[in-house]
Amino acid sequence: MPSPSQVPSARPAAPGDRFEQPTLDGMLADPLQLDLRHTTFVVLDLETTGGAPDGAGITEIGAVKVRGGEELGSFGTLVNPGVPIPPFITVLTGITTAMTVEAPPIEAVLPSLLEFLSGAVLVAHNAPYDTGFLKAACAAHGYRWPNPRVVDTVALARRVLLRDEVPNNKLGTLAAYFRVGDQPNHRAMDDARATVGVLHALIARLGGHKVHTLGDTIEFVKAVAPVQRAKKHLAENLPHAPGVYLFRAADDRPLYVGTSNDIATRVRSYFTAAERRARIKEMLGAAVRVDAVECAHALEAQVRELRLIAVHAPPYNRRSKHPERVQWLKLTAEAFPRLSVVRQLTADGAAYLGPFAGRATAQAAVDAIHEALPLRQCTPRLSARKASPACALAELGKCPAPCQLAISVEEYDAQAAAPLRAAFDGDPDAVVDPLLARIRRLSDAQRYEDAAAVRDRLAAFLRAAVRMQRLSALTSIEELIAARRTERNAWEIAIVRRGRLAAAATAEPGVHPRRTLDILRPTAETVLAAPGPTPAATPEETERILDWLERPETRLVEATSGWASPARGAARWKMLLQAGR
């Protein structure tokens, strides 16, 4: 052990020592994927004055650098804690205040210690205690904590050893159980060497759990469910590329569909402690393989995911499973138009608003419209020449009574139908202004609950109008081509036809994007015209495309017509919607 006056030092590297990580094909390997025998560990132990870490209190540091069972270097020193060492600590460790008087303070030790730790995995017995003191010391003296990966031999022992093998996981107990040559004695270097022996013994036991890499070891220590550990092999041999992944059952049914910019990394995360969803763990129990569909870029992957979910309705996907269930408001095409909630759009001359996620939201928008405009609420088809029996609303004066021919077709259109059509695809003030006035009157009368109900109905209408006008602006364009430059100077290219992704490709660095586009264009999907704001794709697909197109780095290349939104459209009321939330 070092003398009281010894300055911190590390054993000089011998000519044959190599501290750098192994490389693969000339590139630095991913440390988490390295086999444990190729991983460099620094096994560390601290002696302290006790108490909580506050930037001081460290009395001795011992650290040993090892890889593949060989010792590569060591670092050991006493440290002046700046305060007297309590008697009970002296009895426990044998370190006295006199021994540390001429030792360097922690701020002088840290630079050498941090350099010794650089590039290695930190190992300690009860690691949170040791790292807590080192982090506090770095913070107190202006050093950046390198945040190394940490392996705690206490936590590892709890996962590896059975309860009947050892009575506890103290360092002395484990060192004796594994018959380690260096037994701990509450001195930093001796305890660090004892921890080295315990670490090697625990690593030898990890093979039986099919844990061979540093990443596997870190995850093994965490609370990973048995089904995750048993099915971890499903994440093997997947591509590090953007695309879609499908967990499949034994009968080949898709159980779950997902997307990622890196398929392999994302699928691997399902088998770690970070995955806590009970439904996903249940899904893993039924899964027998994972299929990957590589895509040109993230946008294509998102669109493919939506289409696969819509087709297969995987039981463990919650969102996007039933796009056909969306609701629309229809303003009928007849002498005296009325509103109805429908699921299908047809070329019948009617005006539509939507999509709505459910019937309740659609009904709220209907109620908002009826409150703002004198639109009839009865369902029969009315004649422009022959009167029909009046309903209760007409008798109460809450309907212009077209059934009684009390209003002409032209007057009804001017007062109710035409303003509503304009609100659907243009200026929504005919609906918004009357409802805002009503909210103000109710608030002035302190009828706040009634005002909130009107506000919610208005919000349901406005959200649908904003969404539809945004969708219609893109879906009205027969073909639009856009490109986005990536961080590695490639170009993501998308051909969009009537709001549907018709083709996608990536022009790699050094390849002119126009050349890639010329090859891609003849292969693009033919998209035919159809009625409605979303004629060729689901609303969710078109919205994903819009999000990609509206990114600042995306550039428009070509378009068959202009891409524009109404100047006085519903989008100008977005601030009102945000205030309502």
From TrEMBL:
<dbReference type="GO" id="GO:0004527">
    <property type="term" value="F:exonuclease activity"/>
</dbReference>
<dbReference type="GO" id="GO:0003677">
    <property type="term" value="F:DNA binding"/>
</dbReference>
<dbReference type="InterPro" id="IPR050066">
    <property type="entry name" value="UvrABC_protein_C"/>
</dbReference>
<protein>
    <submittedName>
        <fullName>DNA polymerase III subunit epsilon</fullName>
    </submittedName>
</protein>
<keyword id="KW-0269">Exonuclease</keyword>
<dbReference type="InterPro" id="IPR047296">
    <property type="entry name" value="GIY-YIG_UvrC_Cho"/>
</dbReference>
<keyword id="KW-0378">Hydrolase</keyword>
<dbReference type="GO" id="GO:0006289">
    <property type="term" value="P:nucleotide-excision repair"/>
</dbReference>
<dbReference type="InterPro" id="IPR035901">
    <property type="entry name" value="GIY-YIG_endonuc_sf"/>
</dbReference>
<dbReference type="Pfam" id="PF00929">
    <property type="entry name" value="RNase_T"/>
</dbReference>
<dbReference type="GO" id="GO:0006260">
    <property type="term" value="P:DNA replication"/>
</dbReference>
<dbReference type="InterPro" id="IPR013520">
    <property type="entry name" value="Ribonucl_H"/>
</dbReference>
<dbReference type="InterPro" id="IPR036397">
    <property type="entry name" value="RNaseH_sf"/>
</dbReference>
<dbReference type="InterPro" id="IPR000305">
    <property type="entry name" value="GIY-YIG_endonuc"/>
</dbReference>
<feature type="domain" description="GIY-YIG">
    <location>
        <begin position="240"/>
        <end position="318"/>
    </location>
</feature>
<keyword id="KW-0540">Nuclease</keyword>
<dbReference type="InterPro" id="IPR006054">
    <property type="entry name" value="DnaQ"/>
</dbReference>
<dbReference type="GO" id="GO:0003887">
    <property type="term" value="F:DNA-directed DNA polymerase activity"/>
</dbReference>
<feature type="region of interest" description="Disordered">
    <location>
        <begin position="1"/>
        <end position="24"/>
    </location>
</feature>
<dbReference type="InterPro" id="IPR012337">
    <property type="entry name" value="RNaseH-like_sf"/>
</dbReference>
<dbReference type="Pfam" id="PF01541">
    <property type="entry name" value="GIY-YIG"/>
</dbReference>
<dbReference type="GO" id="GO:0009380">
    <property type="term" value="C:excinuclease repair complex"/>
</dbReference>
